[in-house]
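Before relying on records like the one below, remember that each one covers exactly one chain. Contacts with other chains, cofactors or solvent are not represented anywhere in the record.
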Amino acid sequence: MKVADFGTSRFLELAAKGTTVIGSPPYMPPEQFQGKAVFASDIYSLGVSMYQMLTGVLPYNTPLPKDLDKLMRGDLVTPPYVRNARIPRAVSAVIMRAMAPNIADRYQRAGDLLEDLLAARKRGTGVRSSRMEDLGQPSSENGDALSDLQSRLKARETPQPRFCWHCRKPLHARSDRCPFCGEAQ
C-alpha cells in the first residue's frame, strides 16, 4: 500500500493551519471537520490507514453531523486489537495514539510514530498476515526494509530543495513565485 494523497500537508506548507474542510471524511481528524487542520492531522489519517490495513475495516463510518461530538471525544473508535485479536496491544496503542482526537495527545511527527512501532517490534510483538512475515521476528529482509525506512525518514527531516510545479526549476525556500516562469507557487 502506498499513501499518495497528502493534500492537507501541501496546504500547510504555506500556512500554519488549514482553514478549509477538504479531505476524505473517514480519514479526516476531528479538527479538520472544523477547518483547523495542522500537520498532526496527517498523522491521524495515517493512523486510520494503519487501522484499516490491520483490521480490514475503517475505525468508524463517515460521521454524520450529529456524530461529530462523539468523534471529538473519541467515542466512535474501537481499539484495533478488539476487532482483530492477532494485533498486539502495543501496536494497537500506537494506532490509537495516532488517532487521538485531541491534537496534543497525538504524535506530532511521523518519526515518533515509527520509533514507537519499532519499540513494539523489539518487545517481541508482531503482526501476522498471510502475506507478511512475523514482524516480531527479526529477519534480514525486514531489518533492511526498516533501516531503509528510517534513513528515508531522517532524510525527509532535513530541508529539501523546492522546485517550481510548472517548470521544475529550483526555487528559493521562501519564494512564492518562480523567477524563471513566473508561476505562483
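Residues 140-157 form the longest helix (18 residues).
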